[in-house]
Design goal:
By secondary structure, the chain is α+β, with helices and mostly antiparallel strands. The chain has 5 helices and 8 strands; from the N terminus they run H-H-E-E-E-E-E-E-E-E-H-H-H.
């Protein structure tokens, strides 16, 4: 399993303090849809506790879970990259506590503070690469030759 630094650890101390000063604490109840794939992405979260599942829409089937995030993980990167639309959906598995950040406000902070912008962009790029790898692996598990056979076997039983 890949280990990765947490966002706040990846930022220079002064940038970290400025960023955290703009956070607000939020709580999502179990089962809450935090955001939907394709909707406008205008914020992000640092998970303090709980588990969030990332999913994708699959025509004629329930959402396919492609990743799971836990305490310390960054939830949401689409707010940083135009056109600012969610690439996944997200659902709280159980109660989730998080720090929430306004995407437009943080983009403006990054414009004014090049070191924050560079550090944040590098962290988000690493996060996107890791999520892409895990999502691809999960989708191959679900819908690759073995996964498709298991799906058709289970549909024949019902």
């Amino acid at each position: 399993m890949l280990t990765h630094p947490r966002l706040l650890d990846a930022l220079p101390p002064e940038s970290r303090e400025r960023l955290v000063a703009h956070a607000r604490e939020v709580v999502f109840p179990a089962g809450a849809r935090i955001f939907e794939e394709g909707q406008r992405a205008d914020r992000f979260w640092l998970l303090s506790s709980g588990t969030v599942q990332l999913d994708v829409r699959v025509p004629t089937r329930p959402h396919a879970v492609v990743d799971e995030l836990h305490s310390g993980d960054l939830l949401g990167w689409s707010w940083l990259i135009a056109p600012h639309v969610w690439h996944f959906g997200a659902r709280a598995v159980g109660p989730v506590r998080a720090l929430e950040f306004d995407g437009a406000e943080v983009r403006e902070m990054c414009r004014r503070d090049a070191e924050l912008g560079r550090s944040l962009a590098l962290f988000v790029a690493r996060t996107v690469a890791q999520r892409l790898h895990r999502s691809r692996t999960r989708l191959l598990d679900l819908y690759g030759p073995q996964g498709l056979a298991a799906l058709s076997d289970s549909s024949e039983e019902t």
